[in-house]
Design goal:
disordered C terminus
């Protein structure tokens, strides 16, 4: 049997009809998905907090965030995980938060806390430096043993790295570094636990370590001649350093006050 081709207007009407049906089906599916997502039966009912919780605990965190979380849509699929993550990371000591959905109505939050290694600025300033060289705001439970780093905040990672390097070198002489400073002119100063200070001058970390080693490898010879307590060291010399111990100094006492070099 020969098939008669449908007129163009009939074919166009059929295409339009099929298109409208497809749009209607999509709208129905979208409405159904929205209803399911917003249905109270699918609301997030529990938030599980885990991970590094040395300075925080799950109960305390949930109490702190109860009010802010009430402002976030609670639908399992509609809840903004990025917003929840930012809320947790705004809590003191929290460095990073990972938020995951767990079917059917639970969120799992995995936390990573900062590990404080030093004060940023004066002790008790409210700002700390982490073991990653990051500055953050918090108050440690026990801050007696934390050293101090003072300088431009963008230099915090470099300062923490240099502090560790110099501490290791000075420990060879049983000297404890408690403060490292970098001033606006780029000059470094180290302070020991007996309030003695070491002028390190400018330069790269390698330069500063080399000067410090020059001091640590030769000071024993001078200590035999000058047995007093160390008060200050000036390493800003190309081939030596100036030394001051209790009752004795290698700094000239003339009117120019220029220190002599100790080799």
């Amino acid at each position: 049997m020969d098939r008669t081709e449908l007129p163009l207007d009939v074919r166009l009407m059929n295409l339009v009809t099929h298109g409208l049906v497809a749009v209607f089906v999509l709208l129905c599916l979208g409405a159904l998905a929205t209803w399911v997502a917003r249905n109270p039966a699918w609301a997030v009912r529990r938030i599980v907090v885990q991970g590094d919780l040395t300075h925080q605990n799950a109960v305390g965190l949930r109490a702190q965030l109860a009010a802010p979380l009430r402002k976030v849509p609670t639908g399992f699929m509609t809840m903004d995980l990025q917003q929840v993550r930012q809320m947790f990371e705004a809590v003191p000591w929290v460095r990073h938060a990972k938020v995951q959905r767990e079917f059917p109505n639970r969120l799992r939050v995995t936390l990573e806390e900062h590990k404080a290694v030093a004060w940023w600025g004066e002790a008790g300033s409210g700002q700390l430096v982490s073991d990653r060289g990051e500055v953050f705001e918090a108050s440690p439970d026990d801050s007696d043993d934390l050293p101090e780093l003072v300088g431009p905040i963008e230099q915090a990672p470099q300062m923490w790295g240099l502090f560790q390097t110099l501490s290791t070198e000075l420990e060879r002489l049983d000297l404890t570094l408690v403060r490292l400073e970098l001033n606006e002119r780029g000059s470094w100063r180290a302070v020991l636990d007996n309030d003695a200070h070491i002028e390190l001058g400018r330069g790269t970390p390698e330069d500063l370590l080399e000067r410090t080693r020059r001091f640590t490898t030769t000071i024993s010879q001078l200590s035999q001649r000058y047995p007093g307590d160390l008060q200050s060291v000036d390493l800003r010399y190309p081939n030596g350093y100036a030394l001051r111990v209790q009752g004795v100094t290698t700094v000239s006492e003339d009117t120019s006050k220029k220190p002599t070099q100790t080799r």
